[in-house]
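Example 3.2
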Amino acid sequence: MCITNNHCRVLLYPVLLLLLTMLSGMKGMAQPQLNIKSIQTDWPIVELYFTVDCDGKRVYDIDRQDVRLLENGVEIDEFSVWCPDPHLVCAVSASLVFDASGSMGGSRQAAAKQAGHAFIDMMDGEYHEAAVIFYTSVVTVLQKMTTDTTLLHDAINGIPAAGMGAWRDGVYVGLLELVNDGVNQCRGVILLTDGEDIGSTRTLEELVSLATRHRIPVYTIGLGENVNTGELDTLAQQTGGQFYHVLAENEMVSIYTEIMTQLQKLPMEQDCLIAYTRDCADGTMRTVELQLHDYCNGSDVRIRNYTAPLDSTTFTTVGMRLGEVQGQGGGDVTLPLNLVTDLEGVTLLPFSFNLHYDPPSLQLIDVTAPPGSLLEGSTIQVTPSALGSRIEVMDSVTIDSAGKMMDLTFSATEVTDTIRLAVVGLDPQFSGGCFRPSIEDGEILIVPAAPSVTCSMDAPEELEWRTDEQDYEPNPFTVRFQVFNNGLVAAENVLFRIAYDTADVRLVTPSTDVQSGPLSDLEPGEFMEVSWLLSAEPRTMETQTDLGIVATFDNHEDVSCIVGVLIPEAESALVVSITATGPLTFCEGDSVLLDAGEGYASYEWSTGESTRTIVVHTAGSYTVTVWNDAGASATSAPVNVSVHP
């Protein structure tokens, strides 16, 4: 299984099926004990090494669903889990570092070569690999990492014996061979020296740092009485290897074969590994929380810190902009801070900035993250400073879009002339992460205080025609007009004028179309109301008439409102009948008088005559249509006249 550069090729050999059966049920044991051994970074990869014990026994069957991983409180979804298989052995990558100083001549060199050949003879020629390195005052890679045992045997045969011994430099080169070219999981450096280090440029601390960072054990073999056992033992112990102090040359073969056996068994001694990637190198300390859930009849949690490297190439600029707004002197004005970079699913850490403005002209009275803003619910702290205020957002927030972040509310000083004031956000910074905020300047335009007047108007939406009364209801009707001053100063010398269609309505009270309100000036926060009483004349067809009222001021533009009133058609209630004076049947030469009755404004007979009465001499059917003063009409039933010869 390959999850990082350090875990690329693993050759596993089955051993005991019985052990597999014995360990298959370990998840059902006692409460687990989780332990984070270390965190290593090979940026952008982060490696977390851990162990789990159940009832005091080490277990290795940890699956991804058993663990939950968080960094700085944010859950990490993408990560891999690997645990060594204690029942299998693995392929080896080894750097064989030999002492080729002058003191290694003769029998010592022969014993060293024999031990090296024995190590290579244990390789399978297919997966195991090794490199042969010797050192004097300089380091020589005699054979780079290879699986070819013939080349390795030849390289060992070619090791010289002359010069001084810079063994620390030799170990460093051996480590680099494994880091750069070693492909197997089980890796190690085997150092042979017969004396003190002479001439190395590398320190013991450098060797330990490089080896532990890549989890490479160093096995040190000190041959003879003149070795620095303290340094060799320290290097081995701190890297996970082992120190061998050898006095008899014939012990060398058994030591090299023992080390080969240990390297193949490293999976039984290794830790489990979680690997994940990070894309932000901000140089900050990170807190990693590893949770083990529902495993071995319980759960456990461990926390460990590591420091990310610092790399400015991973930084991204996040643009913010202060708004441009206008306010009245002596009043409040709100300036927004907007996020202009469109972010999606990004968590912004707590951030702060210095807000500079002109304190004599502006006073910051409130900073809020209103409902619907990107920072809604966040705690914002404001600290006054000589040139303005320090703004600090105390919470981390996940952002899904651009938009308003917060509102900055100022109290503006009273002015006699319009002034422009810059508001500047300086030194913005997040508490961590690879986002770098940038804030564009904002501006507040302060104008002299003025009234701000609005209006509303009320009138019947529709008049109702009453046939019996031959009039509308209501009639006359009232039109009301209100004005409101939301500004900071009074609206002066208020006058009201009504406009209407004189063909539809007429004024009743007052009879003039202009009137003043109850007060000459409309003060801030006050309202004023006027009304007119109007009368509608009966209509021969439905009419929508508009009524408008305008308020005028000396120090404010005109304010007007309009309402529409529906005036329906006036329906007639007239009834007319014809009265005959004399018989309706008579001889030729006689006549009869037909009378439509009095009280009508006009008449029209079927004969075309327009008088109240007509005299009829001829036979026929006669009708009359009448009108009243409102324009309503009615037509009579026909009257039949017969004439005999």
